[in-house]
Amino acid sequence: MNYLKKNSKLLFPLLLLVLWQIFSSSGYFPPQILPSPLQIVTGIKELLFAGLPPGNSLVLHCFESLLRVSAGFAIALIMGVPLGIMVGRFKLLRNMLTPVIETIRPIPPLAWIPLAILWFGIGFKSALFIIFLGCFFPILLSTISGVLSVDTILIDAAKTLGATEKKIFLQILIPAATPSIFTGIRIGVGIGWMTLVAAEFTGVKSGYGLGYMIMVARDIQRPDLVIGGMAAIGLMGYLLDAGLRMLEARTLKWR
Amino acid sequence: MTLELKNLCKTYTDESGENTVAALSNITLTVRAGEFLSVIGPSGCGKTTMLRIIAGLEQPTAGEVFINGEQLAEPWSRVGFVFQEYALFPWRTVSENVEFGLELKNIPKQERRRMALEYINQFGMGGFENKYPKELSGGMKQRVAIARTLITNPSIILMDEPFGSLDSQTRNALQEFLRDVWQTSQKTIIFITHNIDEAVFLSHRVIGFSRRPGTIKFSLDIDIPAPRDRTGSEFNQCRKQILGFLQQESMADK
Hints:
The structure holds 2 protein chains of 2 kinds.
Chain A: H1 2-6, H2 8-25, H3 37-49, H4 58-89, H5 91-104, H6 113-120, H7 124-148, H8 152-160, H9 165-201, H10 210-219, H11 223-251
Chain B: E1 3-13, E2 20-31, E3 36-40, H1 47-54, E4 62-67, E5 79-82, H2 94-104, H3 109-122, H4 138-150, E6 156-160, H5 168-185, E7 188-192, H6 196-202, E8 205-209, E9 216-221, H7 233-251
Parallel strand pairs in B: 3-7, 3-8, 5-6, 6-7
Antiparallel strand pairs in B: 1-2, 1-4, 8-9
Helix pairs in contact in B: 2-3, 2-4, 6-7
């Protein structure tokens, strides 16, 4: 029982895979509809070593997608945090911007794809823009709410110790809002990652990207490669979030 | 450093501009250099508002504040503030909290660390310099907050019920601690409290505020020589007078 408790994280997914394999092997799941786990593993090997299209390895697809997300995320962070702090700090700005933010925010990033292609063409810049939209709003809103929830007594204390408005920004508002900003970053990266892959469906110039790779697999009717690509997306998303959580725990050990 | 308040008034107006609440009415008060002044009075009578105005955190509706005869644009260069809720920065260690004011004055890192450690040790907190506030007890937090204020060397220290949320033993210990700190530093201190015992133990003078809008209705000089015996007859005499005022004030217009 103890063993089960300790390893439930691994055992349950493993059980699912085994059941899946059994159903596949006994012919309940036709391979052209849902390939078996073993077939998918073979597919992933093919993606890794042969590549799809041939020569373009899965590793490079992952790398390129990660690069796009990182770039879009970085821009969202550089814009979202300072803007969020200003909006949180200054009521007038908040009153002015809230309706604008709340109108643009519900528009799914994917709805921007036609415009993005019109503005930036197919390729890196378009993808960047879509990712940016996915990351930006969670970061902005979490930063605003982080600043709004800063205990005003901390600001008063800083003032009585001689802090100027600039120091209050840097030394009080930013660190105090950091836990909330981190939440926004994690949500933003998650949404950005999901959005990216969808954005790559519309096409990439470089011939790399997980979304693009999946579309190629669809075109040649290889569900094992499609699912292999999906697994890579899931795993990368999980690792990204795990990395962020580690960074968060380290940065916020004062909590 | 002398502090003078002249006809200080504060009225709060809500956003619609229709409803006003008078918090302070016509406060005139002189606090001598090195004096320890306690302020008592019913809750919500404007004591805190007065401290916030002196600290420059709020502007008075009318009246003026003079420090050593000067009207200061930036009172916080001379006035320190200690809050009931400690107001420590949770993301900073004890030492980093104490260093905050020095950091703002651009004192080099090594120098401010050395000064902070000196205070931390002197305040009986040696070994805690790298702890975060969440790891400290209430009494320790307040000592850190006092150190953080004192290290910037203000001439006047405003304390808003600093020991209000501590248990009575810690409270007594911190009162003695504050008395010692005050005796060595000779700062001017204005101290808000609801605790009569505390006021008599620490103060040169106790003033009492009326209900809102706050005006000064009571003043008592306390000449008991140190060390003050909390059970002595003079001590009790003072307590009786203050208690009398507070009771009378709570009966008024009820």
